[in-house]
TrEMBL record:
SMART domains: FCD, HTH_GNTR. Keywords: DNA-binding, Transcription, Transcription regulation. Residues 13-80 form the HTH gntR-type domain. GO terms for molecular function: DNA binding; DNA-binding transcription factor activity. This is GntR family transcriptional regulator. It holds the Pfam family GntR.
Amino acid sequence: MQITNNRSKARPEGLAERIYLQLKDDIFDFHLLPGDRFSENEVALRMDVSRTPVRQALFWLEREGYVEVHFRSGWQVRPFDFDYFEQLYDLRIVLECEAVKRLCARPAGEVPPPLAALNGFWIDEPRLEDGKTVSLHDEQFHMTLVEAVGNGEMARIHRDLTEKIRIIRRLDFTQGTRVEATYNEHAAILRAILQHQTEEAQRLLSNHIAVSKAEVRKITLHMLHQARL
């Protein structure tokens, strides 16, 4: 699955929007797997709607790179493009390491409220165990680090990137060991940032993301089917 140009987030409210969001969730939650084929009629019947809003929703998803249409043979969830995902992870490391650098350069004793909130969740509060729930908090952890810098364009690019790799992140969190490791690694990154240890924070963050990047090449069809189950 290669996710290319992002359609504008401004879409009209309505049935097509609901179908679009549901289909995207189906992909992220492994109900629709890379390579799966389906027709507009199948989606319309399942969602009890006409084909018109289904077709509109699918064209939105096609423009964002999640599905592709085949003449006379319906639609298909895009197969994985491993090289593309690795490029996204490389970009993610660049953006987040720059964010960490800027956060570490803040005045001594100044703790932005977003960092204080992250510290509370990842260090002080009881740990969660559900992988899917932790994966959502993991996304928010990394987006918050970038947003805390205060550069709107940097945050926007990072949000778009985060959505594109969401399916990889969720697959990663089907492994129980990733939950505990994520808590430990996030806590270490936060402590380094709060102590203004720029190089250490960047090293910890790069290693943390590299673990997920390495998992990309290990993805198999069997793993995807197991995630669906």
